[in-house]
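Final report, closing paragraph on structural work. Over the funding period we assembled a curated collection of sequence-structure pairs, and we close with a single example.
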Amino acid sequence: MKFVDYVSVYAKAGHGGRGCISFLREKFKPKGGPDGGDGGKGADIIFRADAQLNTLLDHRYKKHYKARNGGHGKGSNKHGAAGEDLIIKVPTGTVVKNATTEEIIADLTADAQEAVVLKGGRGGKGNAHFKSSTYQSPKFAQPGEDGEEAGLILELKLIADAGLIGMPNAGKSTLIAAISAARPKIGPYPFTTLVPNLGVVKLKDYMSFTVADIPGIIGGAHDGAGLGLQFLRHAERTSLLIHLVDISEHIEDDPVDILGVINQELGFYHETLISKEQVVVGTKLDIAGAGQRLDILRQHCAEHEIPFFAISAVAHQGLDELVSFISERLITLKKLV
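Its predicted structure, as stored:
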């Protein structure tokens, strides 16, 4: 299934039914009086989070949503039926925004969570509603009100405890495959990962945490280089960022410079990302030449009091220590929230 995390749609809630103008006509009741019923309320448009969904693909092809109108009032004081609400299912983690103002209307972070995004119009009052001691035969009724309508932006942000960030081919996909049941595409070339992957890391005592593999970032991503910064929205909900740096000999750039480039791009996207706590992980420890680059990166992290680990995901070297630290740190961070 294709991964889609950003779409725009147009939606309109139901129109309220009109009130009825009617007078009672029965034998032996020549002046029965007004009996026009009220119109029914137009249907609301409701968005509901569904944990079984993981993409906004369906909404890429269905761009317009229109809820049912309310029924019109009838004689004999019969009220029109309310329109049945239109429920639109989206993946858990979806943010619904007004396309014009970019105001956040709903942020659906829990399974089955619902939000009324657009309200249906109120039904009009029938003429029976306006009868009074001084006005016995009102010959008017109210029309129904229009339902709300708007262009909407649906933006999916994966809900994960920790996010894997780094340059292309830093080893993010290999790591998530080694510590979880996720099976992302892995290859010896840049930008193997084109969409985020989500994995569940299971621990002892039935505990677990989720980790998101964010596609690789390069310098200039904020100007559209590489895959740009579009996938960094999936790092916004994380509590901890795990910054992977390739320390093998075939990488010419200084590992500390690589850290700086990625953090600069995080800052270009949003200041909240650069303020998140990070763990730096030197990867591909099994490849020759890692020694010197490893020492440079370890020393830098020690000087700046940044937690540092060196691993080989392929050889499963150092993974237990890394996973244990991440789980303990996440427990602490969640207690602080």
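The helical segments are 57-61, 172-179, 255-269, 271-274, 290-303, 319-336. The chain has a mean pLDDT of 89. We thank the funder for supporting this effort.
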